[in-house]
Design goal:
By secondary structure, this protein is mostly beta strands. It folds into two domains: 60 residues, no CATH class; 80 residues, OB fold (Dihydrolipoamide Acetyltransferase, E2P) (Beta Barrel). The protein is 12% helix and 41% strand. The strands form two sheets. It has a seven-stranded mixed sheet, with no helix packed on it. Strands 1, 2, 3, 4, 5 and 6 form a six-stranded antiparallel sheet that branches.
Length: 173
Amino acid sequence: MKKVILIICIVVALVLLIPFPSKQKDGGTVHYNAIIYDVYDVHRIKPIDDQICDDSCDAEYIEGTIIKLFGIEIFNNTEPESCPQDNKGDENTQNPYFVGKVLEINEKGLFVKVTNTGNGSFAVDEMVQVNIDFSRFPQYNIGDNLRITFDGKVAMSYPPQVTSVTQISKVDS
């Protein structure tokens, strides 16, 4: 009789403790679900309205682990993947940029032709309207090659428009 009780206890323990994995459709999160606990190996795309880090961080992914015991969260270290807290002041590592040649100067700003994609914001030879406040940036000339750093937001128009420029610097062709 003791063997039967022992076997029943082992079976019950296995049922309670063995997790069943399932993949979520949120960018790669895996949920390990057991009866008494849940473990989430989080790798999800960050929703636009998610406020895990401050507005200066444009993280695309949330990564980490979440552990729940009896439905109560006991551990959570999910952090945005690209939320560098230690280099906030370095515009070049945090914000997208591209290099372009000024083709036209208009009332909104500069019309440029992309000559270097930088970190992948635009394609080479793509035309981009760069809206700037002329009081904030120095005067530029047609033909100048500029490295344009911005917040990553692009107006979906033709041509595409960059509206929140954080830095412009002249570069050699």
